[in-house]
Specification:
With about 160 residues, the chain is mostly beta strands. It has one domain. It contains no helices and 12 strands. Strand 10 and strand 11 form a beta hairpin. The chain is globular.
Length: about 160
């Protein structure tokens, strides 16, 4: 909640076993569909490495991330409300992210219901992963489960994470 302009970030982990060109992927998000926000990561992410993108501000209230790509999200990430919001990562073939585009991974948060029908990578309507992420916290996917983090460590990846939502 509140003004988080320039403080939002997403953490991406390369678990593929080979270097990845982040230019082949896109981040989408919003409250009505993944198409409300489109962010283009750039650069080569080495195998096993972690990238923090977004910002560009790095300060204690957003856990002082060191950015791989320091560039704000156009329009910002949604903060969650009565209905769920979502952020996901897409293969670049989904250059025109549409409401029914399939994600490679996604985080559906806030609210009790996924009224926008955000889909998980299997194409099914996703459940809400976390109904609430408090201001000043982040959420992180650990062993396939989304958990709130009151003391996040941006740049220390254990999966796809999102901070300061």
């Amino acid at each position: 909640m509140g003004d988080d302009n320039g403080l939002e970030w997403v953490e991406i982990m390369n678990s593929s076993g080979r270097d990845l060109d982040l230019g082949l992927y896109a981040i989408g998000g919003g409250g009505d569909s993944f198409a409300s926000l489109r962010y283009q990561p750039k650069g080569i992410l080495p195998a096993g490495a972690c990238a923090v993108v977004g910002g560009p501000k790095s300060q204690p209230n957003n856990f002082s991330p060191v950015f791989f790509q320091a560039e704000s999200f156009p329009g910002g990430l949604q903060n969650g409300g009565t209905a769920a919001d979502a952020v996901g990562i897409f293969a670049l073939e989904a250059v025109d992210i549409k409401p029914d585009s399939l994600t490679l991974d996604a985080f559906v948060y806030g609210g009790e219901e996924n009224k926008a029908l955000f889909r998980s990578p299997d194409g099914l309507v996703a459940s809400v992963h976390l109904s609430k992420v408090l201001s000043g916290q982040s959420a992180e996917k650990i062993d396939g489960q989304w958990v709130p983090q009151s003391q996040p460590t941006p740049g220390v990846c254990r999966g796809f994470a999102s901070g300061n939502l």
